[in-house]
């Protein structure tokens, strides 16, 4: 049997399996069928949940820097940012102000203050450059909470600071950004998980408000409050990615950060293009493969890279709700387990089964 080099680079299966565990389980399944193959595990992220872990796994001598921040519901969160050996600080919104930190959801009041506090801690440490990972947020505050932590002042018509969260933006009369802390010498790059603009039918409120618990009427309120913020800040709200993490990208752009698609920037940092150059096959995956997956998410980014390298790509997803014709083979964990609930109950088992199934199908895929 020919020995194959298999690059296994899934995103996290959100809420069920971190990318590291998913990659390991797929690899175990593959090895149970084709034990001689060379398996290269490169767990991925797109800027959302798991981004810090992806850098931590991939960059030797990265250091976790603990920080306690005020979570999206004001509760203290024991979090961390990552210091890379070249002096870059990686700060993740999902582990400071993320959706998974909230129960119950607070679509109107959740905020990003804690993310800004973690950025502040990295600046206090003296980082040379910042990578700011955006996605998986609980809030739709346009980044106002993070900016406030970094020195911006948002006040109402009576000059009193507005309350945190999108609801507070409803009383916003003035945004004073003059007190914002300086960017580090090497600048700040936003790694965003989506390409949505801030406002409109594809914007932060309309597309991501419902997953943060907003009703239809509340989405309209979120949109109108974001519009109020956008009128007071000189950043183009239609920029692709400005709507990432409830519009936090929009706020950080006003700070002077630059915007990059998260999956590509993280893939580069992890050395995925180089790994694919010598690969026989790529396996990628995520929790739900749907229409959004095409908008800069991990599988679509890797599919393109694999096509450029002439490497067949295979997909594993918790559920498949979009066309997978571009992949040589696609496996749905829901189909393997018998139902979505069964797949979620023991995701690693289903991922191992998917890895084994892909290994059995690889000859027809190449
Ligand atoms: O956090 C969010 O709103 C989504 O992940 C899109 O960035």
UniProtKB/TrEMBL annotation:
Signal peptide region: none
Record keywords, A-Z: Kinase, Transferase
Record-stated family: Belongs to the glycerate kinase type-1 family.
Keyword Transferase part of the UniProt annotation: yes
GO molecular function, one term: kinase activity
Domain of life, per lineage: Bacteria
Species per Swiss-Prot/TrEMBL record: Leifsonia kafniensis
Pfam families hit by this protein: Gly_kinase (PF02595)
Name the record gives this protein: Glycerate kinase
């Amino acid at each position: 049997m020919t020995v194959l080099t298999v690059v296994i680079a899934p995103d996290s299966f959100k809420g069920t399996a971190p990318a590291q565990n998913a990659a390991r389980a797929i690899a175990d399944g593959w090895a149970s069928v084709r034990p001689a193959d060379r398996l290269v595990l490169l767990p991925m992220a797109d800027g959302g949940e798991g981004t810090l872990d992806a850098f931590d796994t991939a960059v030797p001598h990265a250091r976790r820097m603990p920080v306690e921040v005020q979570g999206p519901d004001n509760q203290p969160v024991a979090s961390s940012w990552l210091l890379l050996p070249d002096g870059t600080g990686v700060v993740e919104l999902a582990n400071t102000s993320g959706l998974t930190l909230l129960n119950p959801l607070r679509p109107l009041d959740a905020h990003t203050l804690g993310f800004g506090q973690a950025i502040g801690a990295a600046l206090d440490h003296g980082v040379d450059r910042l990578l700011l990972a955006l996605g998986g947020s609980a809030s739709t505050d346009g980044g106002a909470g993070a900016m406030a932590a970094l020195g911006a002042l948002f006040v109402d018509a009576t000059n009193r600071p507005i309350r945190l969260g999108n609801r507070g933006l409803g009383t916003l009369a003035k945004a004073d950004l003059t007190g914002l802390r300086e960017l580090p010498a090497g600048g700040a790059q936003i790694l965003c998980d989506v390409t949505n603009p801030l406002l409109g039918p594809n914007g932060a409120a309309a597309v991501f408000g419902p997953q943060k618990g907003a009703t239809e009427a509340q989405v309209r309120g979120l949109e109108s409050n974001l519009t109020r913020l956008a009128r007071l800040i000189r950043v183009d709200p239609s920029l692709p990615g400005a709507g990432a993490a409830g519009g936090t990208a929009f706020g950080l752009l006003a700070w002077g950060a630059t915007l990059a698609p998260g999956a590509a920037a993280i893939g580069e940092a992890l050395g995925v293009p180089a790994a694919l150059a010598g690969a026989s096959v790529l396996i990628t995956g995520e929790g739900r493969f749907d229409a959004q997956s095409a908008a800069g998410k991990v599988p679509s980014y890797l599919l393109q890279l694999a096509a450029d390298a002439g490497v067949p790509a295979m997909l594993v997803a918790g559920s498949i709700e979009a066309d997978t014709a571009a992949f040589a083979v696609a496996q749905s964990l829901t189909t393997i387990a018998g139902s979505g609930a069964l797949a979620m109950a023991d995701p690693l088992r289903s991922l191992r089964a998917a890895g084994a199934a892909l290994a059995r199908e690889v000859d027809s895929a190449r």
